[in-house]
Amino acid sequence: MSDFEEIQTDSKHFTKAVTEFGEKKLVLASAPIFNDRGVKVVEKGAAINADMYERLMQHKLSEPIENLVSSGSTVDGKFLRETAENLFLEVPFLARVAGESGMRDLLLDVISKISLPPPIAFQLTLCSEVQHDSFIHGVQVALISAWLAKTPTSLRFDVNMAATAGLVHDLGMLHLDPVLLQPEQGLSRTQRRELYTHPLICATLMRRHQEFTKEAVRAVEEHHESLNGAGYPRNLSGDSISPLGRVLALAELVAAMLSRERRAPEMRLYVLLRMNMHRYDNIHVERVMRLLRPDQDAAGAIDLVLADPVQRLLNIEDAIANWPSALIMTPGLSKERLYGLNALAAQTAQLRRTFATVGVAREQLLQIGDGMQDDTVKVELSLLAIEAAWQLRAMARQARRRWRAGHDEAYPPELQAWLNNVDALTEEGTTHSSETAE
Known about the structure:
Blueprint: H1 11-24, E1 27-29, E2 33-34, E3 40-42, H2 53-57, E4 69-71, H3 77-90, H4 92-99, H5 103-112, H6 118-130, H7 132-149, H8 156-168, H9 189-195, H10 198-207, H11 214-221, H12 243-257, H13 265-275, H14 282-291, H15 309-321, H16 335-357, H17 362-365, H18 375-403, H19 413-425
Antiparallel strand pairs: 1-4, 2-3
Helix pairs in contact: 3-4, 3-5, 3-7, 5-7, 6-7, 7-8, 7-12, 8-11, 10-11, 11-12, 13-18, 15-18, 15-19, 16-18, 18-19
């Protein structure tokens, strides 16, 4: 069993969101609400609002509250189509996607015909109201997933399934503490583990409804996995990730990068994909990169330039090279820890190869010289350094997670020293596009 599956969702967060939503829009009990002992808690037709929160929290309900409430204004196909049309106008990358032959009509038709069980439609409505950016993100992921799933050999069913999975993939976040959605909020280890459960929570929500295929549910579980095994919640790798899971993972990343508040989104996405070819399906990555226009973003990214990106990259490469590989010789090492250490060693080797591929290996950096006078070079090197620092920090988190030291157990000295070094190197300047999606 995954470490993350041990965490149980606390219904108070979702119930709180529902009752607060009831203060803005009419939310009614669509059926009598009973507790697990058969005692009626709320009559059918009663308004669900903030005054109901304490009463509902005093009971363990007989079934999930989302099955027992409804709103007069619910997300439907028409609303989804209108949202997609607006995104085609607002997001240049999506406009290019829609500009491909026949793609605009196909995507609009697909998203307007997604089959939504009433409890899921209610949760999407709630998301649209209380976590609107997350709702827009879901629509973007649906459109990008459907576009990636449309190939010369794919069926309309495949495209529909990709759009459906993309639309609902983050509904699990509604059932977690909303503080986890605040990018400026530093998360504790426990909070981060809780965040890592949201794909499993969403899959659980989907399994309650026959409208969702097993493939769509599996893809939602996998939307934060990566081909090199560095994802979550199960650290899957390679062929153990389904084809639709690969589509959804990349679509999630692309949509996160293209969010409206990001500066120079296409240039940052371009750099990020170059640094992460080993994490995503290369065929899909190449389709995305063909539509990107990174040069158009260069001017908007000038304020992202670091004081000395070359030195930062050199320091990061040194940290990667100094991964304590001798840990695998630790006496009495458990199979789980040995597996985790071998996986991390493989990832450090892959990251060093990536540095060479994108032109920032030590030998290449030392030859840049006068090239650092060019603003475009400065921007690209800075973005590469920011992404490299983020990947290094993610590896440190993964090392802590895979070692899983107990409350009274210390990390081995060599691992602790490496973690301390990484923490010092990545303390500043590692804000990353997928930080909130991590």
